[in-house]
Structures are given as C-alpha cells and as structure tokens.
Amino acid sequence: MSSIDERLVVETARSLGSSSSSEDVDTSSPxxxxxxxxxxxxxxxxxxxxxxxxxPWYEVRASLLQESDKAILRHIWRSLDEVITKHDKLMRxxxxxxxxxxxxxxxxxxxxxxxxxxxxxxxxxxxxxxx
Length: 131
Description:
By secondary structure, this protein is mainly α. Helix content is 83%, strand content 0%.
C-alpha cells in the first residue's frame, strides 16, 4: 500500500472508529492505539479479501463504509443535486437575459443608425437651403 492509501485508510478509520473525527492519533492512550490498529487490520483484511475476489475498487471502498456514512453521502448527494438544479435554472435565466439584452442592443443600434442617417439628411437639406 502506498503512503497516500495508508493515510486515506488511517483518516477513514479514524472517522469510522472514533466518536470525534478531530481526535489526534498521537495523543491517544495505548489501548486506543491498539484498538485503532486492530480496526485498521480488519479494514485491510476486508480490503485484501475483496480485491482477491476480483471486486472493482469502488465496490471495495463502498464495502468499507458504515451505514451512517452512507446516509451522510446520500444527504450530500441530494444537496449537490439541489445545487446543480438551481445552478442550471440560474444559467438558463442568465442566457434568457443575455438573449433579451442582445436583442435590445441590436434594436437600439438600428435606431441609432437610423437617427444618424436622419441627422445627416437634415444637415444636407440645411446646406442646400443655405446655398
């Protein structure tokens, strides 16, 4: 196991096996450390067994989650879905506003061009009248 995987396993084990995820492993009592080592050994054993069975990595990781973790993940997933839905709605509204704004800009630009042409005609008419 690489050091990144070991760190991940330690952090996962800490969050699964302790009442407080903010506990520091180094400040634990010897019995807590032994308990964590047994817990990590069980996780490693389960992981090795599942890998030996030919399970994909995501099934191996999912099997190590506790029910409380799964409930939290479902809640986070629903929250993420809500955020994405709101984001999509806002993006559609922005596109509608931009579309309306672009159409208004084109209309105003056309009116400006027509006004400028009218001013040029009036100036030409005034010059002709002065001559």
